[in-house]
Amino acid sequence: MYSIKGKVAIITGAGGVLGGSVAKHFMAAGAKVVAMDIRQEPLDARVAELKAIGDDVIGLVGNVLDVESLRRAADDIVKHWGSIDILINIAGGNIPGATLEADQSFFDMELAKWEKVTNLNMNGTVYPSYVFGEVMARQGHGNIINISSMAAIQALTRVPGYSAAKASVSNFTQWLSCEMALKYGDKVRVNAVAPGFFIGDQNRAVLINPDGSLTDRSKKVLAKTPMGRFGDITELNGAIQFLCSDAASFITGVVLPIDGGFSAFSGV
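RE: above sequence
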């Protein structure tokens, strides 16, 4: 029921930490992986890493904000493997300059950074879903997994653009899940995961001091996380595989928190 063996899975942002973790997990589970990233060098390194697990991997340089390049990629994938079964929209995240400093207010925010982070996370999810989702609609089957965030569930200080964009990802996930089911049947499903707090390259400076100690922000996060720890990036993999498998055949439109209880806890 939980198998994804033989499924063709596109993973955007595969050159990053989360994309790489999911790609390695999917390869080990027997999926055929299309690793996509806008950056050639990290993509080449990732593909070499994945080829050590198995041969069923393609690396494609692609821009999730360029619809025509995505259409060319879709044609290449279908020609090579015959179908697109899974799309995992991981490309996104926060960007330098889009997080307010502790002493800044909303009115100090650079609107150009707002536009960049909202475009990357919102349209960077919508455009691949538009292109690869159309292939799934024609096939009559497929799974789309989006990446939301705790910032979409509860207000987090200092990340206004990222928060707004991830809230739109959650809403779009629900909308597209209904659109697909109503018009193309129950075999085309759309879900999302909402990661809690994981330490990665993008947020390390906000959560960890240069001496390795926790920042004040980290202490607040852990105080509101009943499990009392940060997540490990690999702890997202099983949930994503589950949502892509037949075990989740009656699940669509869900935004699943993977957060150690953060979203459930009032702090009292």
